[in-house]
Structures are given as C-alpha cells and as structure tokens.
Design a protein that fits this description.
By secondary structure, the protein is an alpha+beta fold. The chain has helices spanning 2-11, 33-42; strands at residues 20-24, 27-31, 47-50, 57-60, 68-81, 89-94, 97-103. Strand 3 (47-50) and strand 4 (57-60) form a beta hairpin.
Length: 104
Amino acid sequence: MSDELLKALSSMPAVQEKKHYVTVQGKKYTVPLQKKLEMMRHGEEKYVARDHKDGPVFEILKPQAKTRYTTLQTAERGYSFEQGDIHWPNAVVEGGATWLIEYE
C-alpha cells in the first residue's frame, strides 16, 4: 500500500503558485500578494505605474491641497470701517471693502 501511495504522490502535478493581479491605468499587472493587499487597502485607482528596469513601480498619487483663504478687497458694495479697523464695520456703502474667498 505504501508503494501505491508513493507512486500516486510522485505522479501528481506540481502545485502552481497563485498569481495576483492589479489593474492600474487600464493595464493589468502581476504583483506579489503583499503589494496586492496594499493596493486594495488604498484603492487601485489612486496608483500610477512607472516603468523601471526591474519592472513597473507603483506609486500613490498625492492629491493637491487647495488653499482657501479670505482677502479684503474693494467691491461695488462693501463695508466702511470705524477708523480703518476691520473688526468694527459701520455701514454698507458703495465702493467699500468686502471679504472674498480666494483659492490657490
């Protein structure tokens, strides 16, 4: 019985390693399991593939932060301030100052 078992085990095909795929920018790449899990965690759409001599390198795209701030500018209608102090508006007048939001 042991001879039959050894014969059956030796005739079995070798176990193939499972391949893991990711899709970056519409192209399908084969990657190791750890890289696949990392890319799934962050989202495959946030990655970009760059060609390298050892194969593709995957990098996360950093979102550009938009700076938002207000500035005091003159407008058709705006505030007039008590002695130029921006914390004490007196009235709304023609050609006064107003706070406008700007994006950088």
